[in-house]
Amino acid sequence: MKDTDCREFLDWALPRLGFRRAGFRRVRGQVCKRIARRLHALDLPDPRAYRQLLDADPGEWAKLDSFCRITISRFCRDRRVFEWLEQIALPDLASRALARDRAVLRCWSAGCGGGEEPYTLRILWDLCLASRFAALHFDIVATDAAPAMLARARRAAYQAGTLRELPKSLVADAFIRVQGEYRLRREFRAGIRFLRQDIRQRMPRGPFDLVLCRNLAFTYFDEAGQRRVLRRIARRMIAGGILLIGRNERLPTDASGFREDHATPGAYRYRGPA
Ligand SMILES: C[S@@+](CC[C@H](N)C(=O)[O-])C[C@H]1O[C@@H](n2cnc3c(N)ncnc32)[C@H](O)[C@@H]1O
User: Fold this and answer.
1) CATH fold of the domain at 79-270
2) Which residues line ligand 1 (CB under 6 A)?
3) Spans of all domains in the chain
4) Is the pTM of this model over 0.85?
5) Residues 53-80, buried b or exposed e (16+ Cβ, 10 A)?
6) Which partner for 270 in 173, 207, 232, 237 could form a disulfide, CB atoms 3.0-4.6 Å apart?
């Protein structure tokens, strides 16, 4: 399939799925490859024929939607952001929780990929913060729409490249090398609930102190979709909680209730319902 054909096809299809074309500019290759595989499986000559199929068979749209899930992730992605979480944001949230006599700090990783993001939080908490906040239990819920990503998360075995941003001392403490892979030690897998949820339809029950929704809704969803997701995330956050989106993402302009925290890119403090 020619790149220009795929681009033309996506220009037509992405808005119909509620996605922003611009979000896919740099990762279109991944989507085009999946579409090419689908054309091959269906014995269709080109994207134009696929478009006709989509017009005739509404059920095929769900397949196309799943081809548009970008699955790139890694541990400690954007290391500075995780340094800020470890040194500033998590201690602040933990202190506020303790000041209110709470026993649990709750976090949600939305679009958790193969587990890299929630496991990074787990490792940072257990190895860097838990001893300072021994009275607090750190609870993590991790959701993703892709069954393959959740299976990868549950397996918790990774290639070295995925770990390149995680400090070496933490890699040494949290992983065991087995047959060329890095297996996360059992104790770091505990206390994370992985759920299959499409964020457009379902979300875990809150309230959360910290929500990470990075490199998902605010890159790929159209403006209306972003607003819908944001409204529903807000309902699951405590006042004073932190929403962390991707470092190159921005919330929709009228994101009332959220104040940008300029200490790190992508961080917003939730003020509570207006
Ligand atoms: C680009 S990865 C980002 C992973 C991680 N948050 C990070 O920033 O490294 C996006 C993840 O969101 C998941 N995803 C895509 N669409 C989704 C949806 N509608 N609901 C829930 N998860 C979705 C994908 O399967 C993928 O694992």
Assistant:
1) Rossmann fold (3.40.50)
2) 69-73, 77, 111, 113, 116-117, 144-146, 149, 198-200, 214-216
3) 3-67, 79-270
4) yes
5) ebeeeeeeeeebbebbbbeebbbbbbee
6) 237
